[in-house]
Amino acid sequence: MTALFVETPAYALMSDEDKKRLRSNMNLAEKLGATLETVTGDDVPYQIAEYARVSDASCIVIGQTKTVGGWLRRKKSLTDRLVAYAPDLDYFIIPDHGTKTYVAKKPVEGNRKQILMDSAVFVLSLLACTLIGFLFSHLGFTDANIIMVYLLGLLMVSINTTHRAFSMVWSVISVLLFDLLFTKPQFSIYAYGTGYPVTFLIMLIAAFIISTLAIRLKKNARQSAKAAQRMSVVLETDRQLTKAKTKEEILSVLANQLTQLLRRSLVIYPAENGHLGDPVFYPAADDTVPYRTNEERQAVEWSFSHHKRAGATTDTYPQAAYLYYSLRVQEKAYGVVGVAVHGSLLDASEQSMLGSVVGECSLALENVRNAKEKEESLVLAENERLRANLLRAVSHDLRTPLTSIMGNADNLLSCGDTLDRETRLQLYTDIYTDAQWLTGMVENLLSASRMSGDGLNLKMTTELMDDMISEAVQHMGRRLDGYRFDFRKPDELLFVKADPRLIVQVIVNLLDNAIKYTPPGAQIAIDTTADAAEVRVRVSDDGPGIPDDQKEHIFDLFYTSSNPTGDSRRGLGVGLALCQSIIKAHHGAISVSDQIPHGAVFEFTLPRSEVNMNE
Amino acid sequence: MNKPLILIVEDDAPIRNLIAVTLEAHDYRFITAQNAGNALMEATSHNPDIMLLDLGLPDMDGVAVIQKIRTWSNIPIIVISARSDDADKIEALDAGADDYLTKPFSVDELLARLRVTIRRLNQTQSDNSDSPVFTNGSLRIDYAAGCAWLDEQELHLTPIEYKLLCVLARNCGKVLTHKYITQQVWGTTWENNIASLRVFMATLRKKLENDPNGLPFIQTHVGIGYRMMKVDHPVCS
User: Fold this and answer.
1) pLDDT in tens, A345-354
2) pLDDT tens-digit map of A403-441
3) Interface pTM (ipTM) of the complex?
4) Which CATH superfamily is A458-607 part of?
5) Nearest C-alpha of chain A: how many angstroms from B98?
6) Contact assignment for A462 to B194 by CB distance below 8 Å
């Protein structure tokens, strides 16, 4: 859909109010999804008709304008003139006033009517000029004035008729008429004056030149309309390419634009790691030229490896049915695009447009690849940094519980008999709790390893929130003994799209955290609520709570609230940081706040998921 | 029934020891095997009642062991997996395992799994498996009539819910994977069916467990599947 604005010289004289209205109309058109086009010209309907013709428009929607003509000449309305210029299009004319919209379809039998109209214009002009000539000769004006009248008539005819023949015939007839009617002897082709043959000759030459100029004028207008359309394709390609973010999108833009531009079958071979991939075929509506033949393949390979054009209309593999362009930037090839060239050849403007679209796409492909490489190396560097930090922290923090386990076990092995029962029990308990801590640590590290990178390792399924909470509570096992634990199940079935293992890990970490920072006997509660878009899970306790200055750091990696020397155990601040990255990867949010009157509330949200039932 | 004989298949000596000591302390009879070859031999010669199978054996893939055993025996198999990834457990369950344990597991967990399995063994031995009526605690299903009762009250189930209940009841005590259940109920394993399964299971469970203090009939195994638990104190019927 295209919104066309014809910029006339009168535009400069337009009032500000009109300009504003024009702008708002253009904005509206854009909002409705039209592309804006501007052509320059004097004759508005003519420009519209020409643009419609070169851009192959099939339908014109136009508002019916009220004709405000001078009182001397009754001007035909814009739409009437438009229909006259381009009779074989569908028109939807929307009246300016009144609410009724009617559809006026005017299929006019094209050429014959046009020729009839042109002939009418021709005969009438000729009549008018001759009458004026008689008037002038009656008033005793010189012959030169009459000649001028005929030349003026010629100018009108050349502009107002479609075929050159009219101007040519006019040139000859006007000379003959002048000779017959206005030179002495009248009504005879003989002329007494010695200068007349020269006059006739000059008149004829002038007539030819004028008609040629007039026709060229028309051609120019048509060409500039065509150029505008070509520009618009290139600009549109540009616009779409800036939106395209992946190789596939770029190639589909390329295919779209070229099919629109050329209306020929297309075949695109994307390159994968320096080799040509499988071709994608975009058949034109009417023909499907075979593209998998051996010859075609050779032309494609040659074009790809030599970064040059090959196939039909070139010197390399001219017997191929397609013309192949290499999608390349300098020596890097990103693929090959082939255009079917059977039947009609591509004209010069099509070729240049094809070249520029292909060039644009190659550049876009290179940009995408560069951006991807850059991003990958950034991610890699960031991952490397995180991994190094994590390894350092892990190996440091794992030593403490391992030392305790080893030492306690050693003691029990070597002198277990000499220790009293209570001490032994203490040692066993220490081994158990340290091993438990290590287990939790390992679970977190495993989850973290799955979170690394772009989150593509997530196994997203539709899960019931209750199930995951129950699983986490079950996982906590005896650790919740000694606390007043409460899990209120909601009445509704709350579904989320999530990797269940990771979400269970989040809840386990939050419960762990609550146990770690609250004294036994405290209340720990989980409850879930939901609105239309999100499911919200709150893990609250009535312990001492978290000071405000620590809240903002609590989700940082390796941050711990009681880690002044960096050597305190159970310190590794991985748990909450992991929770945050897991929830973020699920497009949710996690936050911490205060419980009234005291305690901490950790709260996370996950986008709600709908389930389509298969009964 | 006599004390069941348990076959422990585990290549790691400390873990094998741990399980053995635990079983001994709780008066179970057991035999051990350290690789798949031994395990298959012991299984044929001693005909154990329950098998604890580590999935990471040196000489054969654990899933292959399950498939071999399933060709001639229905012995309950509890797999032990060291990987936290669910895929291998699901694979083992689909191959015919009954239950799973993830390392590191606690002694409590191990004993709980054994108790569940033994209860189920007792059930299948006392029941005629072709019986047209299934009873589990206060739940009763009459396959022939196509009805289910809870506490002598008829349950109003949708056709899908009833089908689900039957699949679970027929495999009472076994962990069933999402894939298996959807295959049984819908005949396909589309992702959409697996999502619907969650909904039907949740509504079915609500209907079955309207008493909040009652024992749950259906256990959820997040990321893996569901299981109907054998409830103690069967109603005399």
Assistant:
1) 777 677 777 8
2) 889 988 988 888 878 888 888 898 898 898 888 888 888
3) 0.81
4) Histidine kinase-like ATPase, C-terminal domain (3.30.565.10)
5) 19
6) yes
